[in-house]
Each structure stands twice: as structure tokens, then as C-alpha cells.
Amino acid sequence: MNRKYTNRKYLDALEQKVLVFDGAMGTSLQLQNLTADHFGGEQYNGCNDYLVVSYPEAVEKVHRSFLEVGVDVIETDTFRSNRITMKEYGLQDRVLEINEAAARLARRLADEYTGTQVDTYTGKQGNTEHATPDLRPSTFNLQPRFVAGSIGPSGKLPSTNDPELSDVTFDELVDVFREQAVGLIKGGVDLLLIETSQDILEVKAAIIGCHKAFAETNVWLPIQAQVTLDTTGRMLLGTDVNASLAILEGMGIDVIGLNCSTGPEHMREPIRILGENSTLPVSCIPNAGLPLNIDGQAVYPLEPEPFANDLYEFVTKHNIRVVGGCCGTTPNHLRLLVDKLRNTQYAIRPPLHSTPKLASAMSAVDMRQDPPPTLLGERLNAQGSRKFKRLLLEEDYDSILEIAREQVDFGAHALDISCAVTERPDEVELMRRVVKKLEMGVDVPLVIDTTELDVLEVALKTAPGRCLINSTHLESGRDKADKVFKLAKEYNAAVIVLTIDENGMAKTREKKLKVARRIYDIAVDDHGLKPEDLVYDALTFTLATGDEEFVNSAIETIEGIRLIKQNLPGVMASLGVSNLSFGFAPHARPVLNSVMLYHCVQAGLDMAIINPAHVTAYPDIPQKEKDLAEDLIFNRRADALQRYIEYYEKVTPITESTLADPTEGMTPEQRLHWKILHRKKDGVEADIDEIIIGGHFPSPIGGRAGDEGISPSPLGRGQGEGESPLLSGEGWGEGKPIKRNPRLPDELKERIR
Description:
The chain has 3 domains: 9-116 and 146-341, TIM Barrel (Alpha-Beta Barrel); 359-657, Alpha-Beta Barrel (TIM Barrel), CATH 3.20.20.20; 668-752, no CATH class. 38% of the residues lie in helices and 12% in strands. The strands form 6 sheets. An 8-stranded parallel beta sheet has the order 1-12-9-8-7-6-5-2. An 8-stranded parallel beta sheet has the order 23-22-19-18-17-16-15-24. β10 (292-294) and β11 form a beta hairpin.
């Protein structure tokens, strides 16, 4: 991403060497046995950040201890210096003062030590007269020292529905972090460090807040954003490292990484993933191991040598460019790390091209599925689904969540959401509530389908993940498209763009390409979006009318997709496939849609907005039905439409009452197990009653729990039986249970679901 900087010295240094951050501020201050007087009185006792005002000598001592061992970067003592956390001490109105004071203190010391000559061979600080007497050459250089403005979390979890933890709006969080960043910038920091982040939505707010601070001060600095993962490799609310990368990488940051929570041993796999996949430099700043509770005190057990060895491995093996220490790390930890990295030669990897992804609040999804296409579920659209519209008007969000889960069960990779209804003027609030309900209830990305800019912006502020915007075009000129692209850039969203200009919908393949080129130039050249952020919908028309103007429209759409993909490398293509069959009898539509989908994929289609439950694989479509559909799509016969309609008039529609019951023939226990796995609430209580009345609790995979060779766990294995076939959830792959969100803290689950 092209950004402007008024100070990019930190990034320039990063191109030359691995940079080492300092160690723990908090635990270092604790060793000084400070009293309430040092903190400025009992009311401020324990507020480490306020020491930069009340007793800066303590903070200076910590900074010097790390500068003396040769670190490149020191962090300001401002981890909690935002107005939300400082309100605990009544200091919320002194945020600017505290941050600026902390930054000025660190700046003075960093500049003092930048003037110290360093022997690049031995690491000794001093003048050239201290050069080593042996025969090995020693070169004395001035080591630049940098100041990172530390921005920690607010203590809120805006992604949740918890009445206390989410009682703050996205805009309020943006302003909280803007204010803190302004203070740090005025104090002279070299970069802003967003660290120890627990909720990915808050990280997005912090980044946007930093950019607003740049605009306010006219000082533009690098941003380093670091999330915190637990021992399972996920953030507090379940976000994994791939999702973190997909969500943050395109938001205008310069370094991405991990810090705190665990020691390096539990960061090994996430760091490998970041090192191999991030287009940005990667940082790793772990604790000195997992803390132990010894006599009521947190003790960090990892000694300096294994700590330094692990980070050295990360640098040399995974191309990590920034390292340092978090909780429990001492000057000794950093001294050994600096010594180990001195004169280390690391390979500069060639620039990576990121794989375009969307993300839910928890995991990332490739925008290009293999095999294609990426399926965008269409049933959460109030314009196209009477059921969804009814539930929306009734504000039955639990049932809306069930529709979402059903689409995921049938294989949808993302969910299209449209909440525009003529009966309600509050589309903004309806969209906010639906997004809020789905964000922690389904583990797939969201597609925000709206024509209103205020609705779009609220959705992007509510969704923690990386969304796809549906859609924009040039029907009224570029003004609205410019605004959509601006929002997409700010919130790192991808955009579906329609081949429509001031003359209406493009009907021929050549016109579709012409409009596509114009949109490309605006989005990529003027707004800085990447080609892979653009998903072109070449549009199709219904074939049900027989109108001579549209009999070749399906062919033009297929060939339009092909032309756009060939002439605009990197972009993607999508299609609202079911528009083709609009007006046909419901039971006649799935085959036509499925055949059209197949041919569009052959032409390069990457995504399809469609009901995944109504998609039949091309080889599985009976040849007679396939021929009828292709005659109509490719206009091969003058009577193609008539023959298609007549054929399906003789076919008995399949209704819900004629569908096979997937639980037919199961025992009550097996039925209950299936319903739990597939999140089906209907009949669960009756099954439980039947099991209780029966008085026995056999394993759903056969036999009784506890019988020899049978695992008592419903997910266990029977002896010689392999995995239970009940674990196969349609759409998730054989043998895999349907995804949930097991990472949420227990105390939050009931509040969020």
C-alpha cells in the first residue's frame, strides 16, 4: 500500500537490519518497589502510566536499562493511556498531557543513546578508543534508537453483545485512540504501536484513529499492529492468525505481528504462518514464557538464553524482522537477544503477493476457492426472500441466524445480507442488528448488500471481519462509486462492481469490458485499491421473457466474464446467477442456474451469489435437462424457451414435505446427536424426553457409552470403526463437524449467542 510519511526512519532502518524492541515496562517498574507517593498519591497508586508525570525518574531508569544493552526501539510508558482506562484514576482529561510527556521522555533518551558509538562486532558502546585489541576488524557506527508510541487496548470488547464490555460505539473507540495518538505524535515518537489487542474490531478502530491523528497533526508515521493470541492460537474472541492477517494487512499498517499472552513456544506456528504469508514485515514480542502463579505473584519462567534462541530461530527461519520482549523480559533477556542477532545475515525474501481473502470474526476464506466458485448465500436478502423479510420485520434475529447457518451447512462460503424493506425506514439499524447477530454466530464472511452509503458504513463499523461490499457502479456517474471505494479503502473491504454506466446495463461483451476498464481506473489508480479487491459482476438478464433483445444475453455474460478476466489481470468475477431464471417456475430454476454457473466458471467466474442448496454439480444433472438448459442459454433453437417450460410443467415440484428426512431410521440418541451437530432446534426437547424416559444413554456411534471398545464421547471412535459417519456435515468436507465458535470465554457465550 502506498502511504505518505513525514518520518519513515524506522522503516528505512528495518530494510537494513532486524530491529530489537525493549523488554517489560510493568515488571521492571515493580522491581523498584515504588510507593503511593511515587505515583502522586493514593488515588493514583498503581497507575504506571502516570509515573511519567509524578515520578519520571522511575520510567527513565527502565528505558536506560534497555538502551544500555543495545536495543533499537524503546516503547513509551503509555500502554493504558487512553481516556477509557485512565478514567479509573480520574485522569481521563489528562490523556494528551500524559502521552506527550511519556513520548518526550523516551525521545530524549533515544536521542541521547543515538549519539553513542557502537562497535558493530562486539556491541560495546563508547568511542573508537574502546575498539577491541584483537585482529578482527571493528567498525564504530552510530546506532539509531527509535521511540514506539505504545497504544494498548481500551478494556472493551466491541464485537460482543455484553452490556458492559460493548457499551461503546466504533466511532467512540476511534476517537479514543485518535486522542492518544495525537499526544504521542506531539511528543515525538517515530512510530505508533498498537499492541496486546484482544478484539479485532477494536484493532480496526485503533488503526483508523491513528490515521485520523495523522490528518489532524499533519505528521504521518508508520503503524505497527500486534494482536495477542492464547495457547490455542486465537485471540480472546476466537480470531485466528489467518483472519487477523486478512483483516489488518490492507488497513494502512506497516508491520504486523504478535505480542504478549504467551512465550515464544506457543507463537511458533502463528509466527510461521505470518512469516510465510504476510506481505508486510512481521514482529514477534513474546512474554518470558507463560506466567506461573507463585505466592499470588505472576512469575515468568523463561530464562534469557532459551528466549533469545527461540527468537533467533524465528528471525532466521521465518524471516521475522522485529523482535523484542513483553511481560517478564529483563535487560538480560534483551542483551542476549541483541548479542545473538548482531551481524546476523538474513535473506531478504522477494516481495510476496498476498492471496486475496475475506474473513469472518474468526477465520479467513480464500476469495478464489479451488475448485471454484466461491458461493455467496443469497437467502438473507429482504428483496429476494419473503421469509427473511418477514423475520426481519418481526425482529426475529434467532431465526435469521438459523437461515444463515442453514446456508453455511449447504456450503456457502460467505453470506449476502440486504435489509432494505419498504415497511421500515431504519435500514441502518436493521443492518447493524443483523450483522451483530451473525458476526459471532456463523464462521463465514459477510457480504454487505446495500445501495445506501450510511447503511454500508455502519455495517463496516460493526463487522469485525473483512467484508465484501455489494455493490457499486457508474449509473449516475462516479460520485457515489468514489464514496464506496473510499469506504472500502478505509475499512479494507473488497467490492463487487457492476458493469453499469450512465447508459445503463452493459449488454454486449465489448461494452461490459469497456465499463469494467473505466471502473478499474477509478478504483485502482485513484483510490489505491488492489486489482484483487475488485469483483466484477458482468450481469445477466432473465431468459424467461423470450424478448428478442435478451435471447443472447447469457452468452454475452459468459463471454463478458472471459474478456474481463483476460484484460484486467488480478480482478475477480462474480454473478447473481439466479437472475437468469427469474420468472420461471421455482422447480425449473435450479437446473438452469446450475448449468449457467458451470459455463460461467469455465469462463473464469470466481464467485456466485446463489442459494447453495439449489446447486447441482454439472455431471449430476440428467442429460435431457442439461440439453434443454444449454439450448436456452446458448440460443441454439428457436423453440428453446417453449421446450424448457413445457418440460418442467410435467415435472412434479419437490416440496419440503417430499424431501427425505435425514434423521429417518435413527435412534433418539442419534437424532439428538445429528441435530446438535447441525444446529437444528426443532424436536430436540422431544428427543431428550424420549431418551430420558428410555432410561439408557447409548453412544450415538453404536453400542453403549462405556462398552468395551467404545469411546464414551459422541465424537470418539468405536474400535475398528473409524470416525462416525454422523460427523460429516454437508458443506464442511467428509469427517469434519460443522464449525462453531468454541473459543469464546464461557462467561460471554450466553450473552453473545
